[in-house]
Specification:
The protein has eleven helices and 14 strands. The protein is α/β, with parallel strands linked by helices and 309 residues long. The relative contact order is 0.13.
């Protein structure tokens, strides 16, 4: 069995009197795509940075890539590629100049050849002399990813990597991430997009400093115990108001031309559904999805930065 790429226990981080990350445990296998979901300010980025030696925890311990996160952070950083949420390269430099600068930072041998290879790998060669500031969101994303990969990292950190890019660019980005994963690169990614969450092998939901649930992406919704009914028909706005607060109904969410009605008390929810059956409505039981689970977990969580928290 291969050693896990990341194994941490009890990670805790405080800023002032607020605990941003509270006793976080996680093990990440080599080559996995591990997704972090949670609301803004939930501690996703802070957790990722602590696990990879980029931020010192106030409590807890662990290893990343075989190195101690408390005492060997510099050795960890040499093997990590980090793509921040905001474009962080130099907009007044060309694509090639940006990649050459990153290659210098990592003191890479055969620098020109490494930059040429990076340009080719992500289709940037024809634009190599274009200023980074003139690129669209999708091309900036490609450049940022190329900069993260130029030193051949074993671990890739992606913080909201596709925010502000179009669906085509997002799909191409994830095709590349899957290729890297298949080659043995481990990926940690924070995202709010459900279509991205299903690309992950494992998912952890974090809310306001605490891990709520984790597991394989294709199993995690079923593990939650959440039950969902889908209803289509006429008068859905009125039906939504009627269902809200009834026995067994913990959330009602609109999905296109349907309502998804969810709860964890299966019998009570089924009884409420039966009470609202009529000819102009079509009810069907379906497995709870990641989006229903996300809403359910967020609704039941307490914001530790809220007034009075």
């Amino acid at each position: 069995m291969n050693e896990p790429v990341i194994a941490v226990t009890g990670l805790t981080k405080r800023f002032g009197d607020k605990t941003v990350v509270d006793g976080f445990d996680m093990t990440v296998p080599k080559g996995a795509i591990y997704g972090f979901l949670g609301p803004n300010g939930s501690g996703k980025t802070t957790t990722i940075r602590m696990m990879c030696g980029l931020l010192t925890p106030d409590g807890g311990s662990g290893t990343c890539l075989g190195y101690d996160i408390l005492t060997e952070s510099e050795r960890i950083k040499a093997h990590v590629g980090y793509m921040t949420q905001r474009f962080s390269l130099y907009e007044d430099l060309t694509i090639r100049e940006n990649l050459d600068f990153i290659a210098r930072m990592f003191r890479l041998d055969n620098r020109r050849q490494r930059v040429d290879a990076a340009l080719e790998d992500l289709g940037l060669a024809d634009r190599s002399h274009q200023l980074a500031g003139q690129l669209s969101g999708g091309w900036k994303q490609r450049l940022a990813l190329s900069a993260c990969l130029i030193h051949d990292p074993d671990l890739l950190l992606l913080d909201e990597p596709t925010a502000g890019v179009d669906p085509k660019a997002r799909r191409e980005f994830w095709d590349e991430i899957r290729r890297l994963s298949d080659a043995g690169v481990t990926v940690l990614v924070s995202t709010h997009y459900m279509d991205e969450a299903i690309q992950c092998d494992f998912i952890t939901y974090i809310a306001y400093g605490k891990k709520l649930i984790e597991g394989p992406a294709n199993e995690i919704a079923a593990r939650s115990g959440l039950v969902t009914w889908r209803v289509e028909g006429r008068g859905l706005a009125k039906l939504e108001a009627e269902l809200t607060g009834e026995a067994g109904v913990e959330q009602v969410a609109r999905f296109g031309t349907a309502l998804h009605v969810s709860g964890t008390d299966e019998k009570a929810l089924a009884k409420t559904v039966r009470a609202h059956e009529r000819k102009d409505l079509a009810w069907s039981r379906q497995p709870a999805g990641l989006e229903e689970l996300f809403i359910h977990l967020m609704d039941s969580s307490r914001d530790n930065f809220a007034s009075g928290a």
